[in-house]
Amino acid sequence: MFDFDYVFDSDSHQQTVFECAALPLVDAVLGGYNCTLFAYGQTGSGKTYTMEGDVTNEVHSGLIPRMVRTLFSRILDDDSAQNGNREYTVRVSFVEIYNERLRDLLNPTDEDLRIRDSETNHHSGVFIEGAHCPYVSDPDE
């Protein structure tokens, strides 16, 4: 079940979209949850701009760079992590679904990716089997 939360018109700023749609996911990740940010729409509707934007321009930076910067900023500011009482492990994946085909954007091989629904020790819920999911230690990675 999915809830309808917001509509952003063409005059919306990247920061506004980030604060409404993505920042709550960063908070959830820091609370220990796995999260997915999913952009859906027809070709030319602005998904790439919204998700990636211009990473060299703070105003036009998209959701992904903003989320990554915020996530690592909060980890670095966490006193519990700095004094060794808490440890963070960050893994990322980046997958495109186009014409009902999955493509791993971090490891674009011909490997067969599948959407799975699982209740195992490693996964609970829906996940993409075979997606490259490297560990990262800073925003540039």
TrEMBL record:
Recorded GO CC terms: mitotic spindle; spindle microtubule
UniProt keyword annotation of Nucleotide-binding present: yes
Family: Belongs to the TRAFAC class myosin-kinesin ATPase superfamily. Kinesin family.
PANTHER family: KINESIN FAMILY MEMBER 11 (PTHR47970:SF12), KINESIN-LIKE PROTEIN KIF11 (PTHR47970)
Superkingdom per UniProt: Eukaryota
Designated name of the protein: Kinesin heavy chain
Compartments it resides in: Cytoplasm, Cytoskeleton
SMART domains listed in its UniProt record: KISc
GO molecular function, one term: plus-end-directed microtubule motor activity
Domain Kinesin motor span(s) in chain numbering: 1-141
Predominant subcellular localization, coarse grouping: cytoplasm
Keyword Nucleotide-binding: yes
